[in-house]
Design a protein that fits this description.
Peroxidase, domain 1; Ccp1-like; mainly alpha; about 5% strand; 2 domains; about 45% helix; 12 helices; EC 1.11.1.-; two-stranded antiparallel sheet; oxidoreductase; Peroxidase, domain 2; three-stranded antiparallel sheet; heme
């Protein structure tokens, strides 16, 4: 659920006015078939059934609410979520493929995506990626990567940041896939290149260390940053309803 909602928002582009949760573009094949969305069909099918059962709720709202529930149910912070998004009647507002963040990005590309396109800063970027990577894991059949970032897959805490700092990470290869990822010494945990870049870049590492030592502060920052993510591309009237210019 968290990955699905994240991908509904992270392709936002302010220059073209496309992407983000505005209009529910994940409902169109042009967006859903992006290679970055591989493995999300089960989640989408489940959410589509909910929308069909309650058609007065837009797809755009249905697609963005589940992660709020997921975070809270797993012990995480309460994410502010606002209803009122409208659905785009056609694919003209659907973003082009290839905008979703890539696990192989270095720190410069992370900044290009998160700072310059999505409008986040270092504090927010580390909170967002760390918050999402701190739950669940990677599945080779979907992304090519395999393994988990923490030992508590479905428990919310700041263990991701502690593992990133405390474990010794070495570059390895996913068996039978050939994709490179990082492993700790006993190969019980994994990290992607974007995670290791947090250690290499002082601007990012500062926040990794802060979040590793202060879970309450991390929760606050994640809640604020994710609420901001959910509103990317959403322009609301004074009544709180989004109006899309078709």
């Amino acid at each position: 659920m968290i990955r699905f909602t994240w991908h509904c928002c992270a392709h936002y582009d302010p220059a073209s006015g496309t992407g983000g949760s505005s209009g529910g573009p994940m409902g169109f094949a042009q967006e859903f078939n992006d290679i970055g969305n591989t493995g999300l069909i089960t989640t989408k099918s489940y959410l589509d059934k909910i929308q069909h059962q309650f058609p007065w709720i837009t797809f755009a709202d249905v697609y963005t609410f589940p992660e709020c529930v997921a975070f809270e149910e797993l012990g995480g912070p309460k994410i502010e979520w606002k209803p009122g998004r409208t659905d785009c009647p056609g694919p003209n507002k659907v973003p082009v493929m290839g905008r979703l963040p890539v696990a192989s990005n270095d720190s410069d590309l992370i900044k290009e995506v998160f700072y310059h396109r999505l409008g986040f800063n270092a504090r927010e970027t580390v909170a967002l990626i760390g918050g999402c990577h701190g739950l669940g894991g990677c599945h080779a059949r979907y992304s090519g990567f395999n393994g988990t970032w923490t030992r508590k897959l479905f428990t919310w805490d700041n263990g991701y940041f502690k593992a990133l700092l405390e474990e010794n990470w070495c570059l390895g290869v996913v068996p039978e896939i050939g994709i490179e990822q990082y492993y700790n010494e006993d190969k019980s945990l994994t990290m992607l290149n974007t995670d290791i870049e947090f250690l290499k870049c002082p601007e990012f590492k500062r926040w990794v260390e802060i979040y590793a030592n202060n879970e309450a502060f991390f929760n606050e920052q994640l809640a604020t940053a994710f609420a901001k993510l959910l509103e990317l591309g959403v322009i609301r009237d004074k009544d709180g309803v989004q109006r899309i210019k078709i």
